[in-house]
Design brief:
- The chain is an alpha/beta fold.
- 39% of the residues lie in helices and 15% in strands.
- The protein has two domains: 16-232, Type I PLP-dependent aspartate aminotransferase-like (Major domain) (Aspartate Aminotransferase, domain 2), CATH 3.40.640.10; 237-349, Aspartate Aminotransferase, domain 1, CATH 3.90.1150.10.
- It has helices spanning 16-28, 35-48, 59-69, 87-95, 113-119, 139-142, 196-205, 224-255, 284-293, 306-310, 316-324, 336-349, and strands at 52-56, 77-81, 98-102, 124-130, 149-152, 160-161, 164-165, 172-176, 189-193, 260-261, 276-280, 325-328.
- The strands form three sheets. A seven-stranded mixed sheet has the order 1-9-8-5-4-2-3, sandwiched between helices.
- Helix 6 links the parallel strand 4 (124-130) and strand 5 (149-152).
- The protein is globular and about 65 Å long.
- It starts with 15 loop residues before the first helix and ends with a helix.
Length: 351
Amino acid sequence: MSRPSSIPHSRPSLGEAEAQAAADVIRAGWIAQGEKVAEFERALAKVAGQGEGVAVSSGTAALYLALAALGVGSGDEVIVPSYVCAALWHAVRQTGARPVLVDIDPATFNAAPPAVHRAVTARTKAIIVPHMFGLPADITALKVSGIPLIEDCAQTLGATVNGRPVGSLGDMTICSFYATKLLATGEGGMVLGRNESLLTRIRAARHYDESDDLAPAFNYKMTDIQAAVGLRQLHDLPAFIARRRAIADRYSAALRGLKAEPPGNRPDGGHVYYRYVIRVAEPVESAVQRFAEYGVMCRRPVFRPLHRYLGLIGFPETDRAWEQTLSVPLYPSLTDAEVERVIGAMKVVLA
């Protein structure tokens, strides 16, 4: 009997509907940025509870353009948590500003409000708050009067807290549609907001030609092919989230009595489980290898905290999270049989 194939850590949930949406655009003959992009912008703004959207080529581009529209530049500071992917660092540095790193709340893995408030200086021009792994951050506690706050919803699109969409409270909101995100178009991103002046600057900056001047701009555009796939994915997003939550419930039930701590949640709920992140008793790399022996590909949820790239100290909760947390496969295209295989591996590896 052949050995079952490995269960990947991530896998996009794509099907015939997405293939048909892309094919329809190709047959129509307009594949660059066009009406499908505009339709996608309107639809996503509604989901995020923001006024308008500007679709761009990636989530990193969205971060950079949002910062640039706010006038962030050389000599400025932007507060970001250390426990994130490197995209935030690169976006801030691209503006010429300095990223100021802060520690996280151990219960949520999101930026710790006291750390954010301590990091504010006269040079602070913006705060970027990623909602980590699908668990909404407490935006109200993280806001600082007079300083723009950018919500990074790359991992929480579609979540709601007390009836309000996550992404609706920030001065601006960004999304990513990378292949493994909650809503996938391969690549792509979007900036959302209500300030028409800021959004107009971003629209101008994503398009480099046929302008009245030579103000700095670049090609940051999304294609209609991507937008058509995104619209189809957006239609299925509630079902995707429901499936993620159902799998998370099964995992959490299986973890009872095992040597691992399941993900936390807010008192008002809202977790959409972009990642199912657990704290383990053994070293993370050892757990990754042992899960792999059972054909289950797990990973650290953050490759390396930003402060560790820089040789900095003073981030105890981030260090603890990096040393103890493991991301277990969870996505809508997991079959029930694959879920049972993951649970079976949990019961052996985490016993």
